[in-house]
Amino acid sequence: MAEQAQFEELARQLSAVGAVNRDMGRILPPDCPAGSAAVLTLLGRHGDMRMSKLAELLAVDMSVTSRHVAHVAARGWIERSPDPADKRSRILRLTPEGLEQLDELSRRTTRLLSERLADWTDEDVGQLTRLMTRLRASFGDCRSAPVRHASAAAPVFEETTRTPAST
Q1: Measured between alpha carbons, how far is 12 from 9 in angstroms, rounded to an integer?
Q2: pLDDT tens digit string along 61-87?
């Protein structure tokens, strides 16, 4: 098992990944903020879905999801149609314009990564991808995060489904 100093350095490096995410956010088109890009990406990856499923995948509450969905729907990137199984619900689906926008997002992201990692070998990029995938798997379902309660006794953790600060 790694030593305390290694975990401390890992924590510092993970914290610094925020700068990478901010830089990636800067390449998004002005009419497609990060929340909208996430909606398009998830619909592209998982296909048609209900708003409740999207909220779960985004790890945000329904009010935040509704704002993101309204934004992408207003631009014609998704359509909302009645769910045949439950007329009170809506099924979200990418439109052809949404697929074009998703392709543009992918091109921009790929271009930025290829520019910034130009001096990396294919093996380095592959190793980083494998390790990040493994890191995410080690954390399991990050949609519910333990909250630490400070006390004189041993720390107590409880499950919560909180909205990430970056959303």
Answers
A1: 5
A2: 999 999 999 999 999 999 999 998 888
Q: Which residues of 60-86 are buried (b: 16+ CB within 10 A; e: fewer)?
A: beeebbeebbebbbeeebbbeeebeee
Contacts of 91 (CB under 8 A, 6+ apart): 48, 49, 50, 80, 81, 82, 83
Q: What is the pLDDT of residues 30-61, one digit of tens each?
A: 999 999 999 999 999 999 999 999 999 999 99
Reported as type and span, the H/E element at residue 89 is: strand 86-94
80 bridge partner residues = 92
Compute φ and ψ for 147, nearest 5 degrees: -105, 130
